[in-house]
Amino acid sequence: MSSSPTLGRGAYREFVRVREVLRQESVGGILLILGAAVAMVTANVAPQFYLDLRHLHVGTSFGPIDLNLSLAHWAADGLLAVFFFLVGLELKHEFVVGDLRDPKTALVPVVAAIGGVALPAGIYVAATFSDATARAGWAIPAATDIAFALAVLAVIGSNLPAALRTFLLTLAVADDLIAITIIAIFYAHDVQLLFFGGALVAVAVFGLLAYRGQGFFLRHPWASWLLLPVGLLAWALTYTSGIHATVAGVLLGFAVPTRPPRGSDHPRSLSDELEHRLRPFSASIAVPVFAFFSAGVTLSGWDGFVAAVTSPIGIGVIAGLVVGKAVGISGATWLVTRLRHASLDPDLAWIDVIGMAILGGIGFTVSLLVSELSFGQGSATDDIGKVSVLTASLVAAGLAAIVLGLRNRHYREVAAAEELDSDADGMPDKFDH
Description:
- By secondary structure, the protein is an all-alpha fold.
- It contains 17 helices and 4 strands.
């Protein structure tokens, strides 16, 4: 007996929510691409100005907590923490009240994400095996950039089935969870447990205030700003502890309640409210500014570009993202489907899954961050890693646009034919979310 279809649509309530997230992240993806493009132009037209701006220090110190950081570090450690806070909210929502709370539903995107992380990392290690320094960047091709991917999908995929778009978002949620775990475990340095313990206490206080005061914060939206000082303290202590500060954003996101308060007629939870307020800031400011300070690499002409992308790091990153993601995601999805004796949702074909898996090869925001963590911000190897990430992301976007563009045209023709049949029968179209 067959189980439920693989990549089913899920609940309509979740579809409505996913559609709104897709819309906002698509706009953010376009701004992300613009930020990266401006960075590349500035870094090559006015390289000294760009470097001086990146290294400009702002801030102060509070005893052992040194927050006198360069603008590049503020972007990577500060603004990106807002992005990861939203990731934390999204993760908790999906696994507590979303479609992924059902283990059977969560199995496919989680296993697909694991395949889409493990195979690219394996390809990278194989390409850089003889170079210990280069091998440190094994996690660079492991992450999918949901904003960039959704921007591409928004341009070429307006008629693709809802189940496919939902799969991309849930896959990215699981992918983010793996990426966060990798950053927290493998890219911590000189961890000071006292400061990290203090950060956990601050996160606990943040969660206690969020849960106990949820009703008040929902009735008085301005009051949620009272949580900010505690959140900033948790962030500062995490940064000082040696664990990357973006982990604090995720932990704080986990600490926010995802269900409306009991006995309240308010339709949303505090998590929904904070996500609604912060996502525009993250998509339009935080991530594009990070892209500007991170993606600016000075190219030494065509020869320098070729040398970068044909180096072991370049081959590992590009092959990992373009080939590893496509094969890892689609292969893991196929394997789960076969083991469950299930079939694809009737709206989908395997070429759709392959196209979406290719789109998963767009590794931008987190990949750039991991390159910096692996090789040191602004180092020669970091530049090679970033050039390779940008190249691989553009190649993956182009290939996905071809495959999904053709499928989008197919679905548009199917929709037009169904509309003609409906008009001929004099019957209203069936509801299809």
